[in-house]
Amino acid sequence: MEELDYLANERKSAKFDVEAMKIVWAGSQQSFEISDRMSRIVASDPAFRKDNRTMLPRKELFKNTLRKAAHAWKRIIELRLSEAEAAKLRFFVDEPAFTDLHWGMFVPAIKGQGSQEQQDKWLPLAYRMQIIGCYAQTELGHGSNVQGLETTATFDSETDEFVLHSPTLTSSKWWPGGLGKVSTHAVVYARLLINGKDYGVNGFIVQLRSLDDHLPLPGITVGDIGMKFGSGAYNTMDNGVLQFDHVRIPRTQMLMRVSQVTREGKYVQSDVPRQLVYGTMVYVRQTIVADASCALSRAVCIATRYSAVRRQFGSQDGGPETQVIDYKTQQSRLFPLLATAFAYRFVGEWLSWLYTDVTQRLQANDFSTLPEAHACTAGLKSLTTSTTADAIEECRKLCGGHGYLSSSGLPELFAVYIPACTYEGDNTVLLLQVARFLMKTVSQLGSNKKPVGTTAYMGRIEHLMQCQCNAQRAEDWLKPSVVIEAFEARAARMSVACAKNISKMPSPEAGFAELSPDLAEAAIAHCQLIVVSKFIEKLQQDIAGKGVKEQLEVLCSIYALSLLHKHQGDFLSTGSITPKQASLANDQLRSLYAQARPNAVALVDSFNYTDHFLGSVLGRYDGNVYPKLYEEAWKDPLNDTVVPDGYHEYIRPLLKNQLRTARL
Amino acid sequence: MEELDYLANERKSAKFDVEAMKIVWAGSQQSFEISDRMSRIVASDPAFRKDNRTMLPRKELFKNTLRKAAHAWKRIIELRLSEAEAAKLRFFVDEPAFTDLHWGMFVPAIKGQGSQEQQDKWLPLAYRMQIIGCYAQTELGHGSNVQGLETTATFDSETDEFVLHSPTLTSSKWWPGGLGKVSTHAVVYARLLINGKDYGVNGFIVQLRSLDDHLPLPGITVGDIGMKFGSGAYNTMDNGVLQFDHVRIPRTQMLMRVSQVTREGKYVQSDVPRQLVYGTMVYVRQTIVADASCALSRAVCIATRYSAVRRQFGSQDGGPETQVIDYKTQQSRLFPLLATAFAYRFVGEWLSWLYTDVTQRLQANDFSTLPEAHACTAGLKSLTTSTTADAIEECRKLCGGHGYLSSSGLPELFAVYIPACTYEGDNTVLLLQVARFLMKTVSQLGSNKKPVGTTAYMGRIEHLMQCQCNAQRAEDWLKPSVVIEAFEARAARMSVACAKNISKMPSPEAGFAELSPDLAEAAIAHCQLIVVSKFIEKLQQDIAGKGVKEQLEVLCSIYALSLLHKHQGDFLSTGSITPKQASLANDQLRSLYAQARPNAVALVDSFNYTDHFLGSVLGRYDGNVYPKLYEEAWKDPLNDTVVPDGYHEYIRPLLKNQLRTARL
């Protein structure tokens, strides 16, 4: 069964070893093998089909997800998969489900915030899925401001219980995934009240539904919050609403690792450092950055392959038209996104190292790098998710009209991705956290406290405030030192300018509020510098495989110079480069696009995505787009009959001018 | 039945006459009254309900649209509505349907391209909807490049017929709305072949379905192309696929206004100027610009009202938290979009004048302004639709997590709007058309041919190449002359730079291709200048109503200065302004935001949208958001039962560790 490869010529033109690049992308041989194996297991199992997803009405869609989740769990048991393998398998099933919250939030919350006793009791149940849990924090009226949560947990010393209650409509838990229809338990965040005193927000393990018949327990109102963006996307998830009417739980179900309530109703803090919370945040956000590179690379893979298949205009003497990927306008929009996918992959890798580093330091009671690591991950979460969301939509546009079809996979990829800009910290709020850290760093310059980690460059502030970029020819922009200095100067000068402007305001707080749009821009400049730096650092390592490093160097330059072009205003207004240098960078960028062009399809092949995972007719590995688009079309329920349902009631009377008497 | 208005304080703080602003927004008293009346007719008729739209599976969704279209037609007849009123009524029904193509493309195509005889025959049938028509141009393999269409219409002189045929899979008509399931007829574009000679693409009226039983006629394969972006959105439309297997139509069904085929098979050109086609394009694109201001204002209305309702952080002494609209980061993202809605409204108004002007000139055989008008509308179509698509998504993000719910209305608004970036000319292709016109204009500078209309500023090229912006204080940026000159200098210098760089290339064509990304940027600069100019011109007219003009002046400045900030790089790299001046403009912008703040809710009220049309719980006029969100949630089909369908098959066995033996 020889299969035609319509992209064979594209693959032949590649100037590097694709198999070696696959290892680089995956991070290691082992990581490649796990991903490869898990993705094939999912792709080859008809139970995991997803091509009909956008056609299912909500109830069927949801039931179908329950089926897949159960099937995945069954396979995980049968194949005796390790925790890492199981996580990968779930990842390739590629459908938001209650299990995401169970494994990704409920279990970690108990692990991180539960006492040893609590862990011993609850984790085995959760690991075997004898209970299913979710994470109920956000409320209808309260998202980013966790301290504003209204749900109460009042200690009743007579019965040794907490009474959970939703005092207002806006205190209804709202959004938690897995809550609406599935979870038997939840970690619920509520204000702890003891004898009328408010001890702030704490976590509680609460059973929501009977383990016998799945009915909500007395005092609990729970349901789904309704349809969300997209036709499939997060509609496979039962994001839920939850209200408590004086629901009682044993005192032992408050998560007690960091603070406890005693039998007598005394609130006690343990000696476990509260900073642990930040360590968890670093962990979660680090995974979000990794997910960003994954979602982005997926969109780029689809757009790149289809840009090589699609032809439009430019036919010479009746020959074929020009491949869309050969147009400079297409390249100038697509290749920076391809480069960004790699950039985010590597910064994600580095962040996972950073998390390990922070964890080890925490264990040694060294908190010195935590604020910087926290700011850095917050910023990178914001930057990478915002960019990725926009990039997916840009990839859809790059696929022209057909990108609008569900069968292109891009609408669903967009709809399912964008919540990442909001969850685990709204992206604007996060940028302002970074900015606050930058302002603090600037204010401490000249003191004994030296900036560390990703803010270390601020230590050379005097140089960065007055240095002049020495790019004189387009090729100078290929030098890492030239690029880094320009990005450092831009970021440092924007931060310093903000600090100066704040100092002119009546108060630092008022100034910070007034100048927050500028501060957000300074934070972005800082975060982009981090990504550029980490990409460059990656290239200073040994990288195996013919031509692999050379390709990555091209991509690194494309990433940096396309950012420089896009944010020219920052670089010029801070005097970090001259208009002439900006123009040289742009010239260099054009010739980099020409270098990337013959390698583009092979570069997206190195993501090693199966057609199942891509879920896109336009992005098919074999490039056989048109016959498959045509085939897909006929599967729509509307095509079940030639004459549509409704013809006799609504079309015929209209054509026959019999509407006046018709009952509609 | 007194209703609470949660936004009453916001409305009280407005410093202008909202009723007068409504007239300005509508364009005239008459236009306001028609819109107002039609929108109320639709809103008050339960048959036009749309709140359940995202929950319907495709077939029901489509049938529901057929019902609404028939009901709308019935009401139009019963109420004896004028053509303008009928169009408005359909607009407020707010659901893509086959009627859009019938009225918007099929009828105009026959009017514009049909001979008098053809018009006399077909138009009465179409006007009474005794036939339903669509517009079949795009093919599976061919979109932007109309000259590349593959469908053939071969003249058979023996039978005096054309034989329509789809020679390849890629020649299948693909995308036409109304084609898939409803239309009885289509205007089909095909290559005209006579005696083996190719006379290029022409239009033909083709019957597709029997008027008796709605079955496709022999030789015709027709169906729906499947699900598209969003859950409702364009899934109410039967975008279709169509293949011809040697389908015969009478010779008289070629549209013969501009060229004819005689009984003998001679191809004859009439003396009707071919430029008429461009006139039609100006018309269609002008309506697209008007639609952009409508979609954008709708999104802005939702985001503005919700930003005033939503509170987060900043609670003092247990008081209410800060309204989100009071944050500068929110203002700096939202208010430019509010200003853009007005800017696009006014440039749309001007374009409709331009169309009238062009039409009158065409009738007097004056083609002199046509190329400029054509370039200008192409550019404004591209600019306004791209900006609006991004702006809707930005408004969704400005609504935080709840913007992701379908009940916010924003996901559907986005999904239904974005095709505007692709249809009637892909936005990138259009920008390059503008750029080509600009390069031609630059090349003719100094010749006798003076630039006209929106390129007239190029006539002052010498001044614009060397002028220096004289803004010295922030307030100087409020002067229209300062703003206009900066925008003119930027646009002119970017065009001239492109022309210079092209001249260094081996050939103009190669240069144009190589520099197309820069050319697209120059085209955007030119188009933004047009919008800014037309806004400023609008303000030079008399505008009635207390405070109305003052508000518009604030919005005009916000529009211009936010663009200037966003595209700082252009202004600085061309030396049109200095970094210091850019910073002053930004300072001015901040104080303009403060001026706009108390008027924001009243400004969006002046769009006069009903809650039905907005279709958004977050954007409700009365601001009563939370109880309604809660109410909406329970309507989801998933909440029909407390225990979800699938519990017994998939959740219970999992919880009970009985999966091994379960059949999934």
> Uncertain spans of chain A, ≥5 residues at pLDDT below 50?
none
Work out the largest interface and the residue count of each chain.
A-B, 139 and 139 residues
Please count the beta strands of chain A (DSSP E, at least 2 residues each).
11
Structural class assignment of chain A: alpha+beta
Using the coordinates shown, work out and report the CATH topology of the domain at 102-272 in chain A. Butyryl-CoA Dehydrogenase, subunit A, domain 2
**Alpha plus pi helix count of chain A:** 23
Rg from Cα of chain A = 27 Å
Strand proportion of chain A: 5-15%
Biggest β-sheet strands, sense, barrel of chain A: 6 strands, mixed
Helix content percent band of chain A: 40-55%
The fourth-level CATH homologous superfamily of the domain at 102-272 in chain A is Butyryl-CoA Dehydrogenase, subunit A, domain 2
- Based on Cα principal axes, name the global outline of chain A: globular
Name given to the CATH architecture of the domain at 102-272 in chain A: Beta Barrel
Oligomer description? homodimer
Features:
3-stranded antiparallel beta sheet; 6-stranded mixed beta sheet; 664 residues; homodimer; alpha+beta; 23 helices; Butyryl-CoA Dehydrogenase, subunit A, domain 2
